[in-house]
Amino acid sequence: MNHAHQPDAAAAGLEQDLALLEQRQASLIAHTRALRAANQSLRAELAEAQSRNRALVERAAEAARRIDALLARLPESAS
To answer: In the chain, how many H helices and how many E strands?
Structure first.
């Protein structure tokens, strides 16, 4: 009689393992989707930061040009 119940126990164990694997798979899929969304958001933030950085670099270069032009207009010192 014991032998007749072993296949049922084995099948139940396999079902339990399968259910656990399905849960892990669903969790991994959800985690992957969340990571993709976060990655997309970070890429957008990076693009914005790079754009702001380029604008600031250009403003600094313009300020340097203006300072150089002002310095060129100053009279030479008498020393």
So the answer is: 1, 0
